Amino acid sequence: AAYKVGYFVGSLSSTSINRLLSKALLKVAPPDLEFTEIGIKDLPLYSPDHDSDYPPEGRALKDAIAGVQALLFVTPEYNRSVPGALKNAIDWASRPWGENSFDHVPVGIIGASIGSIGTAVAQQSLRAVMAFCNARLMTAPEAYIHLRTDAISDSGEINDEELGAVLTAYMAEFREHVERVLTVLPRG
Ligand code: FNR
């Protein structure tokens, strides 16, 4: 059986290197993973005032997460954490109270930056958030991608052997993690 994976790209930039990274990851992923992007750009800012009656954008986000078996975060680092747009989406999905969409969901975290630290600090920050949201985090391997702009083409072809090997191994391990979690905690 195939596993349905929803993925978030944490950047709203039209020239996002993390979007490129997401395209490359989809290309090297095991064939039994089926990917759907879960968009974050149309969400209003979260407020508890919405909890009694979620707007369509908030509902759509929660439905999208409910419709997949695992989640992959592909995110930049902004000021040593994740971009506010991504955190906003996470806050929406974690609520209303008692309806946390991340509960027991297998999750992978990866990201690229133009700096050598490769989103390491943002990923640690996101791990803390996802741990609190009771997601089942893949703890290893970690992948901190320092991305040269020519390493991945616009269509997601990887032009760097070492990067290709890292991303392929990451997605293979992610698939194993998803399978392991879903064996104990089946979803959909
Ligand atoms: C950055 N960038 C950045 N890089 C990093 O390694 N650590 C950081 O803390 C930050 N902080 C940061 C804040 C803000 C507001 C911006 C706009 C950028 C640089 C960042 O890695 C670079 O812009 C990437 O290209 C962002 O990823 P996307 O949007 O191209 O996917």
UniProtKB/TrEMBL annotation:
GO terms for cellular component: cytosol. GO terms for molecular function: FMN binding; oxidoreductase activity. This is NAD(P)H-dependent oxidoreductase. Residues 4-146 form the NADPH-dependent FMN reductase-like domain.
